[in-house]
Amino acid sequence: MVFKKMLSALGVGGPSVDTVLANPNTRPGLALDGQVNLLGGDAAADIEHIAIGLVTRVEIGEQAGVMEFHRQVVSGPLQLAPKQTLSIPFQLPLPWETPITAVYGQRLHGMSLGLRTELAIARAVDKGDLDEINVHPLPVQERILEAFLQLGFRFKKADLERGLIHGVQQTLPFYQEIEFFAGPQYAQTINELELTFVTNPHGVDVVLECDKRGGFLAPGHDVFGRYQVAHTDAERSDWAQVVDGWLQETIGRFGAMRAQAFGPQGYGGAQKFGHPHQRGGVGMGGVVAGAALGAAGGMLAGHMIGNAFEGAEDEVSEAAGDFGGDFGGGDFGGFEEF
Question: How far is CA 49 from the centre of its chain?
Fold first, then answer.
């Protein structure tokens, strides 16, 4: 999406800005390439700076708001003459923990993420509209998502929760939860599952939260598991077996989990707790480079994922919707109510 918005700070006759992305599709850890195109207004304008930032919707408790979680200044002070055109190229590296918003072309219902251009002039800041970004999973994330679907899990919704996960190194003040309805073979034990990826240059921490069914005399509880995989593990062929092992271990550890007493940490948002289990080595090698976006591989898996995601919006009416216009302001760590 390309936007062109007259600066409200100057009103009619002021400069306009047009941000163009070379490709709105990307992956965590890769970069967005594009350019900011400026067109001078009726009079010369002294621009203080031009910045771009990633903006998304985050939940904290019962509230929802927006947060700019990553930004880059693409130009310092400059003067724009009347009717002058100027193009400023940029390359914005994405954090490794950038949340996933699409899988095999299917948008994750509940996720919205965009690139916002900010132009400061005459001590006023115009934050502009949003260019929507499609963040696709890394290969190892993709294999794990495929495995859950092979095991009969059905996608419910996804969202971002503000907070930190115990024992996991995070650089962003929120984490993504991808929620599934339990597969038939697990439905007697758990209702739903929440999957969280916390990614770094070497691999991924996989956090599972299972909603355990209660009985006649015993209340239901959540159980947690945390596992570590390397990016190079994407080449494994037995991911359904690996994920099933995680699930069996996590569910079977219910009694031990209750006995553990981890203290809450973080930003005052949600916390998750778990135990790490290391698998595989570390090192990216050529995994991300070899997964450059273009013609997506895994057509059978893509068809399966598309079918699993289709109609999820109808099943979960409370899931978050589309962008619905400009998110508004907020610097890194800021939080605004809708």
Answer: 27
Q: How far apart are CA 136 and CA 321, in angstroms?
A: 19
d(CA 60, CA 266): 12
CA-wise closest residue to 332 among 53, 103, 111, 130 = 53
SS3 call for 288 = helix
Longest CA–CA separation in the chain, Å: 76
- The two beta strands, 174-181 and 190-199, are antiparallel
- Beta-bridge partner residues of 34: 21, 90
Q: Are strands 85-93 and 336-337 parallel, antiparallel or unpaired?
A: unpaired
pTM, entire model: 0.76
**Residue linked to tokens 């400059």:** 78
What DSSP line would sit under 52-80, residue for residue?
Answer: EEEEEEEEETTEEEEEEEEEEEEE-SEEE
Q: CA 114 → CA 32, 49, 305, distances in Å? A: 11, 20, 24
* Residues 150, 204: Cα–Cα separation, whole Å: 20
- For residues 119 and 10, what is the distance between their CA atoms, to the nearest angstrom? 12
3-state SS class at 198:
strand
Tens digits of residue pLDDT in 61-87: 888 898 999 999 999 999 999 999 999
Q: Identify which of 33, 32, 276 has the alpha carbon closest to the alpha carbon of residue 136.
A: 32
Cα pseudo-dihedral 312, 224, 201, 241, rounded to 10: -70
Burial of 213 (0-12, 13-18, 19+ CB in 10 A): middle
Tell me the chain's radius of gyration from C-alpha atoms: 22
For residue 20, the SS3 value is strand
59's tokens: 């939940």
Question: Which two three-digit tokens encode residue 128?
Answer: 């502009």
**pLDDT 10s digits, 280-324:** 433 444 444 444 454 333 433 444 444 444 444 333 333 333 333
The neighbour count for residue 324, using CB atoms within 10 Å, is 10
Residue reference for tokens 């918005």: 5
